[in-house]
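REQUEST FORM: STRUCTURE PREDICTION
Request ID: SP-0412
Submitted by: Lab K.M.
Chain count: 1
Length (residues): 130
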Amino acid sequence: MTVRQTWYVVLALSAFAPSLFAHHSAVAYGPTSIPLKNATMTKIVWASPHVILSFDVSTAKGPVSWSAETGSPGSVSRLGWNRNSLKAGDKVTVELFPAKNGAHVGRLKKIIFADGHELLDTQSNPQSLK
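STATUS: Completed
RESULT:
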């Protein structure tokens, strides 16, 4: 292989390197999902690499703020989502795989609306978290 060919290979590999290191594991989340009822959406960030949902859950001690990550905008779009599927103020049940460290964050499994319709996430199968 010539020096020029070697540089082409190095350049080609470096073009793919960021995507190889960009993905992260769901190991921080537990394998069992929990439902968080009486949730009110507060913020939806429709951006790569993950859509981020922020919401407050009503408890006897007052509201508790949570956040959940979903798949990318492209992947949840293939499941029927769009940037207007959820809005601040929506009252929903959020089912997620909570953080193992007890923080109020998780990986979304699905959103359930009062009328029963659901928005699934790419992680709806808990086996995919292992």
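NOTES: Residues 16-22, 126-130 have pLDDT under 50 and may be disordered.
Reviewed by: T.R.
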